[in-house]
Structures are given as C-alpha cells and as structure tokens.
Input
Amino acid sequence: MLRFLIIMAVSMLPLSVRASCPGDCDRDGEVSIADLLVAVSIGIGEASLADCADADLDSDDRISIADLIAGVRTALDGCPPRPTPTPDALLQSISGVLDRECDARWLGAFDTPSDIGLAPLIAVSCDHATGGPMLTFSRLEDAATAAEHVGTSFGLPLEFGGQPARLYAHDVWDRDPEPNLIWFFSAQLDCWHIGGRSYADDESHGLVEVAQAIADDVGDQLRDLCQSPLPIPTDPMAQSMRRELDRACTSSSFFYFPPDQYGLPYISARCELEDDEHLTLVLRHVGAAVGAEVSDDLSQSGQALLGFPASIRAWPAAGGTAAIGCWYVTFDAGNGATSSQAVSFAETMIGPHVETLLGACGD
Output
C-alpha cells in the first residue's frame, strides 16, 4: 500500500521539476519521477541508500515515509537554488573536513578570491609526515575534459561519486626507510579533476577515503562553481601557447591564470595526439626561494631542459620536472607517448617565453 500511495503521488508530478534540492539523485539540477521512484525503492528495501543519499533528508541512514512525503512536496513546490559559494567559504569547508579527518593537515590554493569563483587548483595534505594523502582539485573546462584526465588504461578501476576513477601503485626503490610504494589516485567530480598520491606499504593510506570525505562535504559547492565561466586568456604568452596547441594537437586544453587576477600564476596545457597518446605540461609559480631549492635538487641529476636543471625519466611514468627561475615545471607523457615527446613538447611550449617567465619572478 505504501508503494502504491507514493507512486500515485509521484505520478501527479510533471515529468521534470527544475530544482536544486534533496531528492535529486543524479544531481542534474532536476527532481524527476525517476528520482522519486528510486527513493521509494530505497524506502521499501529494494535499493541501496547509496543510490540516492540525498533523499535521506534527516540523515538517519534510511528513507522514511516523512522523507518520501517531503521529497514529493519539495518536487511539487520547488526550492530556491543554492547560493553560489565564495572561494573563502569553500576553502573553509575543506579546512573543516581536514580538521576532522587528519591529525596534521595543510591546505592551499593557487588563487585569491575573485568575482568569477575559484581559480583551478586546490591542494590539500593530510598527515603528510607519515606518508598520508596529498590531493589536488583542478578545475577544468567541463565534465568531459575532467573525465579525459581520469583515463581508462591504467590501475584499478573504482567508482567515485558514480563516475569512473583509478587507483594504482608504483614501487619506489630508493625510498628509505620503508614504505616502498607510492599510490596514485585519479577521479572526476563534475568539471573538477581530483589527483592524489600517498606513500604506504601495502595500502593506499586513506587516499580514497580523504578524497571521498571532501567530496561528500563540499561536492555540491564544487559542482556549483562549474557553472561559473573560466576566463579567456588575453596575455600574449598565453595566446601564443594556445596557438601552438591548436597547431600540434588533435585536441587540447589550456589554462592560464595570471598573477594580477589570481595571485600566484598557474599554467596548464594538455595535448591529445593520435591513438589516444597525450602530453601534459604544468608550470607553477612557487616563488624565488622555493625555486632556488628545487633548482639545487634537480642540478644533481646532470640533466637539463632549455639549459635549466631538470630530471627526465622514462619509467615508471615518462616525463620529468624542471626549475626555471621561480617556476616549478612538470611535463608528462601518457598512453604510450614517450619521454622524448614530453621533453620536446615542454621545450616547444616554453622556449619562446623563457624571458617572460623569468620576468615574473621579480628581482
């Protein structure tokens, strides 16, 4: 009888009601008949609460008659959209998660608050001194671009918020003392790519768990920010790099966040080649002092990129790192592309702009 009454109530709804409220199982901004039927199935024990946790309005880990009636009422009446979060509010929310999940923690963002939302890199560290998770949340153009960054050809496939994710490990032969494994995590949250790593012996050391805790608490805020437009670069260096990507790649993505708008500059480029091969390049402004330390460390390798200290590897993941003044540079090759391709890509993208990059370091 309960199922019949609820289904009758649901059948009186329009096919789709525009709302941003509890009961939106797939979080597409609409509460539909399908969403409410999922809630009914959970209520009578034919589906898992994980299929629509947002239908549990009072967070008591079950779907009650009150939850179902409230879901129907809010679908009929609608509800105001959630306010767009400010960058400060988002970072404060993430800080709260880290306080709860970690004994020691660090949170940073390559941005300052701006009128269009958050610049595209949030970095967190949880118990790093004992090998705990380090995660980055990078905002990309859209969900499809974020999905491409997750990849499909490596590691253990997982599900993260209903989307594919990957977890994999590499041996670290020269790490002393133990542990001897470094774990990597790659996932998508709407237009955000989540990347992470942790050191551990035979477990991922809470890497996925910390990422999930952040997604559970601030996932809606991150999704809301996906609705804000990304800025279009007008800087001559950014335009030049963008043209090179258009020339050399079958498809590409490019992000440039200059210091006058977002604090610390950040440049990210991805070049898709034939046969799903891809190349990536990231330049992070880390300041003159940190840049000098990185340069000293890399100089021990005896390798160079454009005459600057670098470390280039062919295994386990092709690519490398370099220090160009105050810039920390990473370049990588994926899906069969080689380290020589990654080096060539970095040199082609950076070479014409070395003086400009060094000029951004100040005196």
